[in-house]
Amino acid sequence: MEKSGKERIRMDYWLAAIMLFTMSSIAFINVLSRYIFHFSFAATEEITINLFVWLTVIGSGIAFERGSQLGMVTLYNIFPRKMKNLTILLSSALSATLFALVDIYMIKAIYNEITLFKATSAALGIPVWIYYAGVPVFSVYVFIGIYRDAKKKLKESG
Questions:
Q1: CA 23 → CA 20, 30, 34, 70, 142, distances in Å?
Q2: 20 to 30 A Cα–Cα from 29, which one of 13, 47, 77, 150?
Q3: How far is residue 33 CA from its own chain's centroid?
Q4: Domain boundaries, the chain
Q5: Mean pLDDT confidence for 116-143
């Protein structure tokens, strides 16, 4: 994250915090409901699972940016500078390709849901494609994280 006199508002951080807060609140309310009223809200599981998927996508972008993704640092550390730069670029390209493939297949699934299957969720009756749409939308943060991580690492390696 860039350091300046004024901190920027990070939309990915806010979205992650809001989703995590919402998931925690829903789970807490559902537990209270079960113990106090002996009644469970069916929709809570549906909402929580889909928010978890979206949160994972946003969290992946944050992890990429922080350099927290898995890596083979033992080999990387012994490489000469030019080889490190090549490794950074290759790793970033492969990561971006992986998420691009995820997005392509998710967009195909959304298209199929809208045109062919027209499935709705079990508890709320929401079209399933709405839940699917979060993955390609929020993967923008993954691509930004991959870019920022590569930029930072290339700058550090000289």
A1: 5, 11, 17, 26, 21
A2: 13
A3: 30
A4: 11-157
A5: 97
